[in-house]
Amino acid sequence: MPWLQLRIQTTPNEAQAIEKAMLSVGASAVTLEDNEDQPIFEPELGETPLWNHTRVTGLFDADINTAKTLQRINGFYRKPIENSHWHVLEDKDWEREWEKNYHPIQCGENMWICPSWISPPDPHAINLMLDPGLAFGTGTHPTTFMCLQWLAKQQAQDLSIIDYGCGSGILGIAALLLGAQNAQGIDIDPQALIATKNNALGNKLSEDSFPVALPQATPDKQYDMMLANILAGPLVELAPTLLSLMKPKAKICLSGILATQKEALIEAYQHQVNFTDINEQDGWVCLAGEKLSKNVI
Fold it and tell me: Where are the beta strands (DSSP E) in the chain?
């Protein structure tokens, strides 16, 4: 069954009122999008900024009366809405549409990230089979890809790993397939913990090799390697926590950092970390190095 989309071009000040009006008259979903090319990379904590030119799109059943629906939205909004257009959205199996565009990714000489529904291009390589579900981390984004590239070059044999902000579990699973002894996944999103468990099992890893937990349940121990692909703001705030979870001389890989934020990240960690590997791709940076054996004052 097709759907109808009502698209309204508006400003940040009006967007939320229009969203509320759409939901009040029966919209199945409402999305707010950039109507021009104005990136918002990382808001401040507690902020939800919108674009200067915002498009609000409401999804409605195809059998509605469009004129009456728009009239009711105007009533809730309390004034006529300009720049509105109705569009037909053909019904699709969106999960299959996504699957068609997700292909194996080579991120090391001998390591591939493969969708779970596709046979690996090189059956003799280390193949991480992935079904990310609703969690972040497929290997396609530069932040994840650079972490995987760095990880593929490391000697992970018998190391203990912590994947802080594990998302789909892609980094911790990669470390385990490269020979790590065990990995601990931490994430604030319960959906991510479910995805990590499922992906670990999909790669024939035991639950004991990759336990997961919310941050408040992080085990009180130290690890040989820290992997954290989050965002710059949380990485700075979490610096004391992440450093406390690392053994002396532990390896560390941080990503989710814009090039303009690199110096702030280095400053937050340099009293305990020597960053020796700094990579950049498409405006994103990955910082990797080693924890010092003792603090530098």
Answer: 3-10, 29-34, 54-61, 84-89, 105-108, 111-115, 126-130, 160-164, 182-186, 212-213, 223-229, 246-258, 273-281, 284-291
Number of structural domains in the chain: 2
Task: Please indicate, yes or no, if residue 238 is contained in any of the structural domains.
Answer: yes
CA 60 to the chain's CA centroid:
29
- One domain for residues 56 and 104: no
pTM as predicted: 0.69
Domain that holds residue 120: 100-291
Q: Would you say residue 296 lies in a domain?
A: no
- For residues 172 and 109, membership in a common domain is answered with yes
Q: Is the pLDDT of residue 63 over 90?
A: no
Residue that the structure tokens 């931490």 belong to: 186
68 and 116 assigned to the same domain:
no
Same domain for 249 and 214 = yes
Q: Dihedral of the CA atoms 204, 207, 208, 210 (nearest 10)? A: 80
Clarify whether residues 149 and 273 are in a common domain. yes
Angle between helix 142-152 and 170-177 (nearest 10)? 20
- Dist CA 207 CA 279 (whole Å): 33
- Coil, strand, or helix at residue 97? helix
How far is Cα 140 from Cα 168, in angstroms, rounded to an integer?
13
The CA distances from residue 244 to 152, 222, 255, in Å, are 25, 7, 18
8 Å CB contact between 136 and 200: no
Q: Mark whether 170 and 197 lie in a shared domain.
A: yes
The DSSP letter of residue 218 is -
Average pLDDT over the chain, rounded to an integer: 85
Mean pLDDT lowest among 122-136, 139-153, 254-268: 122-136
